[in-house]
Amino acid sequence: MYDMKREYNLAYIVCITLVATLGGLLFGYDTAVISGAEKGLEGFFLGAKDFQYTKVLHGITSSSALIGCVVGGLISGFFASRYGRRDSLRFASVLFFLSALGSWSPEFLFFEKGVPTWDLWITFNLYRVLGGIGVGLASAIVPMYIAEISPSNIRGTLVSCNQFAIIFGMLVVYFVNFLILGDHTNPIVDKDAAGILSVNAASDPWTIATGWRRMFVSEAYVAFVFGILLFFVPRTPRYLVLVGQNERAMSILTKINGMTKAKEILDDIVSTSKEKTEKLFAYGSLVVIIGILLSVFQQAIGINAVLYFAPRIFDSVGVEGGGMMQTVIMGIVNILFTVVAIVTVDKFGRKPLLIIGSIGMAVGAFAVALCDNFAVKGIVPALSVIVYSAFFMMSWGPICWVLISEIFPNTIRGKAVAIAVAAQWIFNYIVSSTFPPLYDFSPMLAYGLYGVMCVFAALFVWKLVPETKGKTLEDMTRLWKKRAS
Question: What's the predicted TM-score (pTM) here?
Answer without folding.
Answer: 0.80
